[in-house]
Amino acid sequence: MNAQAEKKGSDHSNCGAFLKIVTFLAVLAGCSALAENNDDNDKFCVIHVGPHKTSTTTLQEFLYSQSKAGGALEKDRYKYPSFIKGYTSASKAHAILVSCVNTESPVLQPICSNEAFQSNVLEYFQSFVDNTANDRSNIILTSEEFDRPGLNITELTSFLVPHQYKINVVVYYRRFYDWIHSYYNQFNKLKEVKHPITFVEWLRDEEFFEQRLLGYSVAVYNRFKEAPGIFNVSLVNMHEDPENFNTNARFACDHMDNAPHLCAAA
Asked: Which terminus of the chain, N or C, has less C-beta within 10 A?
């Protein structure tokens, strides 16, 4: 797929930043799904990183439903950490881990602002990885909060690399105009927004717009692609065969290693 040129408006200062996104379209054609040359003895950690507004809740609820005893994940030897209940819905619980390895996000910092809480979360995850590795099982992590630019990816991978996990990151791709308008709709639904603004007014806040770009697929893909310890980064193109696109099936069947039961369940 060739990147399509975008018409640049002469009076929009944000267009320069936006045009950088267009080059990302070229990546879709050459990005592999499952990594090749895997060994039967390999252990995998598959990390679904969103980003926000790419059907993340649908996938998370599916994965959580299959994480219970006797579910497809267990049959495929994938383990799903539960973390601490009560701070978020069960299918969103992996956001707690993200908040505790995130150094900058004002949205997530309050979740893990207590040092004792942070210590408990990270100790739990370390114990979970140790036990899962000893069992020679795989790991699945899923949260759109992994798209936050303040995420300390090196700290995250430091739990997994010593156990020789192959870390496969999955990023969903949604066309920019679809994605940014969906983000805008969510923004206007927030309880803190007492006076909704128009889409154009929302985009005119250049600093805010730049922050949103950091959470778009192109930026998320690049951050994980450049991070040490990551084995493979793959993309799910949500616009490929749109009439038959199935969020869960594309992830389970095309982007997870050795997961036939999960693929069948999708």
From this structure: N
